[in-house]
Amino acid sequence: MNSHPYSHLVGYKQWADRGLFRIVGEKLSQLDSQDAANLLRVLDHMHVVDRIFQHHLQGQPHGFEAPRSKDVPDIGRLIADAMAVDDWYVSYVGTVSGPDFEQPVDFVLTNGAPVCMTRGEILLHVCMHGTYHRGNAGILLLKNGIAPNDDRMTDFLQAAA
To answer: Could you tell me which of 119, 122, 120, 40 has the C-alpha nearest to residue 81?
Structure first.
């Protein structure tokens, strides 16, 4: 693993997301229907935001009108697609040199607001956004008697050592 903080951040996100996806893939049917629907919406929102910012980093249009899908995909498709985007972020960070993390990227949010963030700020946003919503998912799992995955940074760093 590269030693700069962005490598740790995206590696941690990938690791923590995979742990959550494993639990959700195994236990989704044990949630009541409303909580299962809410959990899928949370995971879809996380994934769509990851994709939107992936496109910003690539300088490409993303095609989303909102930070969520019009129709939430089934859990298997959602997990596979989200894991592929996590893999992309890990690969992307491995190709960016130190000074390039400070390069500004201009884009427009789905609400129409123009924004300028550095590549590093985009990566930080994506990672922090995922952390927030993994917490939301964990609450829904706990509410239904399902232990969420461990997703502490200290566990990740120990496993990566």
So the answer is: 40
Q: For residue 89, what are its two tokens? A: 């972020």
List, in sequence order, the alpha helices (H) in the chain: 5-27, 33-58, 75-95, 119-143, 153-160
Paired tokens of 106? 């201009």
pLDDT tens track, the chain, 161 positions: 455 789 999 999 999 999 999 999 999 999 999 999 999 999 999 999 999 999 999 999 999 989 999 998 899 999 999 999 999 999 999 999 889 999 999 999 999 999 999 999 999 999 999 999 999 999 999 999 999 988 888 888 888 77
The one-letter code for the residue type at 150 is D
What is the C-alpha separation between 60 and 12, in angstroms, rounded?
Answer: 26
> What pTM did the predictor assign?
0.94
**CA-to-CA dists, residue 109 to 43, 49, 100, 105, 116, angstroms:** 20, 10, 22, 12, 10
Element of type H or E holding 104: strand 104-108
Which residue is associated with the tokens 């990938």? 14
